[in-house]
């Protein structure tokens, strides 16, 4: 059998449509995370091209074979917007928004997971390694193992895995665990996610779990070992450093500050427009600081980038309205003709512009209510070659496990967020330098290549163990 020796299966293909109808590599977190690995392995990538009803033949980009999976408009509505982003997403982010449990959505999720599985099974050569990505495809590992027992299967979960008390709400809680347990290695962002998963497995199946190993019944009547462990994801640190060091980006950072009326301090928030990100909590804290006179618009501006996301899902539409109402109110109450309180941008920007914003920002606000990792926190740190700037970081973001030298906040505690913002705004250069150096060391010591190597090494061990059996 011919075919790829390394296959990634993800909801999206790592490409975006150009204005002229061609394709270019997309800038998303997962994509930049896996690009270096794919280039080295000359692998295949199975995924959805991002538009409904688009039927495409496989094509190649940057040495990777791209294998498109077509999703109909109905699939997008039921599998992507419905089960993935209106059931699993809110449930796994601690029910910040209420999950909807719809049987029709579940049926579509099973159907579409099967389609991804079939495409991966066809692309993979004998004994290949297949790496499944994220919560949209939780059933693929077991479906793939059934179709192709010769494969070595990894799964990485980019978002949180909730405590059993919440997970147990899911009407299909057994089926989803069974799906995930089809993998040889199941990777999570935080140790807490891996242990929540192991607990759900113990509660629902009573399988033996020891350290990171889970004894799963095998098709031959015996058992096999599945590894469930934390592999915190990172970023392309060298790439961000290079971008941040460029003259153009540094000049652009200066221009951004001038364009804001040269405030003494620039605060920055960069998020997908998502209720998990705590944007409203952050705005509330900033508004109160202005109202109390602890900050003034002549001296401080908040730049809030909220990139468009999942715009057809109701909860996201409502959130956008609420954020824009809040920003409008704050700006209306506090702006002067020459200075704005909040410069709000409902747009996505290329990496160069992001790096310029990071360099322009004295304070980076990451106040997620729950977040698998939050790569923005790591991007900000990697870009600060000058060892200046303050990262305010939610303890509920996965990045918090590694970035202990940030100013920590509980985003639900508005007084605490206000104090953290003031502390960051007033922080002396010496303390900024000490903290930023420690943060940068953390990020540099564990970049995205280390992440993928760690995960793939664990998969290689699983392969050797399976072969020895
Ligand atoms: O963080 C989870 C995630 O699915 C990422 O993999 C992805 O980059 C991001 O959210 C955006 O999601 P979507 O593909 O739904 O636009």
Fraction of residues in H or I helices:
40-55%
- Count of alpha/pi helices: 16
End-to-end Cα distance, whole Å, is 23 Å
- Whole-angstrom Rg: 23 Å
| Beta-strand fraction estimate | 15-25%
Estimated structural class: alpha/beta
Bound molecules: 6-O-phosphono-beta-D-fructofuranose
Let me know the number of strands. Answer: 18
Mean pLDDT rating:
95
Largest sheet: 10 strands, mixed
What shape does the CA trace take? globular
* Spatial arrangement of strands, main beta sheet: 5-6-4-1-7-8-9-12-11-10
Q: Uncertain regions: pLDDT < 50 for 5+ in a row?
A: none
What is the element layout, followed by pairings?
Layout: E1 4-12, E2 15-17, E3 23-25, H1 29-41, E4 44-48, E5 59-61, E6 64-68, H2 73-92, H3 103-123, E7 124-133, H4 140-147, E8 152-156, H5 164-167, H6 173-180, E9 185-188, H7 191-205, E10 209-210, E11 213-217, E12 223-230, H8 237-245, H9 247-259, E13 265-272, H10 279-291, E14 300-307, H11 314-334, E15 342-345, H12 351-360, E16 363-366, H13 375-383, E17 390-394, E18 407-409, H14 414-426, H15 429-445, H16 448-468
Parallel strand pairs: 1-4, 1-7, 4-6, 7-8, 8-9, 9-12, 13-14, 13-16, 14-15, 16-17, 17-18
Antiparallel strand pairs: 2-3, 5-6, 10-11, 11-12
Helix pairs in contact: 1-16, 2-3, 3-4, 8-13, 9-12, 10-11, 10-14
The structure holds 6-O-phosphono-beta-D-fructofuranose (F6P).
């Amino acid at each position: 059998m011919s075919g790829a020796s390394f296959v990634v299966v993800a909801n999206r293909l790592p490409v975006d449509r150009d204005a002229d109808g061609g394709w270019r590599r997309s800038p998303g977190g997962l994509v930049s995370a896996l690009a270096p690995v794919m280039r080295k392995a000359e692998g295949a990538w199975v995924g959805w091209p991002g538009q409904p009803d688009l039927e495409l033949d496989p094509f190649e980009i940057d040495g990777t074979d791209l294998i498109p999976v077509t999703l109909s408009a109905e699939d997008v509505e039921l599998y992507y917007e419905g089960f993935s982003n209106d059931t699993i997403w809110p449930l796994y982010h601690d029910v910040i928004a209420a999950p909807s449990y719809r049987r029709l959505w579940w049926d579509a999720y099973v159907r579409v997971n099967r389609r991804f599985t079939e495409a991966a099974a066809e692309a993979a050569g004998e004994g290949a390694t297949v790496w499944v990505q994220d919560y949209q495809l939780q059933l693929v590992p077991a479906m793939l193992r059934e179709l192709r027992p010769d494969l070595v299967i990894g799964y990485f979960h980019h978002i949180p895995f909730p405590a059993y008390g919440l997970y147990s709400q899911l009407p299909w809680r057994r089926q989803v665990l069974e799906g995930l347990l089809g993998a040889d290695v199941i990777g999570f962002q935080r140790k807490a996610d891996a242990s929540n998963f192991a607990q759900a497995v113990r509660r629902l199946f009573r399988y033996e779990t020891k350290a990171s190993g889970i004894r799963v019944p095998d098709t031959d009547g015996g058992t096999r070992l599945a590894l469930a462990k934390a592999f915190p994801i990172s970023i392309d640190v060298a790439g961000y450093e290079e971008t941040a060091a460029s003259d153009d980006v540094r000049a652009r950072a200066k221009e951004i500050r001038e364009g804001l009326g040269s405030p003494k301090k620039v605060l920055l928030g960069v998020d997908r427009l998502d209720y998990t990100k705590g944007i409203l909590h952050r705005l509330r804290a900033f508004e109160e600081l202005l109202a109390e006179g602890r900050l003034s618009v002549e001296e401080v501006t908040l730049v809030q980038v909220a990139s468009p996301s999942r715009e057809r899902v109701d909860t996201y539409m409502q959130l956008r309205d609420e954020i824009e109402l809040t920003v409008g109110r704050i700006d209306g109450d506090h702006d002067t003709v020459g200075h704005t309180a909040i410069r709000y941008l409902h747009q996505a920007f290329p990496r160069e512009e992001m790096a310029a914003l990071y360099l322009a920002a004295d304070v980076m606000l990451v106040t997620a209510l729950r977040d698998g990792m939050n790569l923005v926190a790591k991007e900000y740190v990697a870009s600060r070659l000058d060892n200046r700037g303050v990262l305010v970081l939610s303890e509920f973001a996965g990045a918090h496990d590694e970035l202990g030298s940030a100013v920590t906040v509980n985003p639900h505690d508005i007084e605490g967020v206000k104090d953290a913002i003031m502390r960051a705004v007033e922080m002396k250069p010496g303390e900024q330098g000490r903290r930023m150096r420690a943060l940068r060391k953390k990020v540099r010591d564990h970049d995205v290549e280390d992440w993928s190597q760690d995960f793939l090494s664990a998969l290689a061990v699983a392969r050797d163990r399976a072969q020895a059996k």
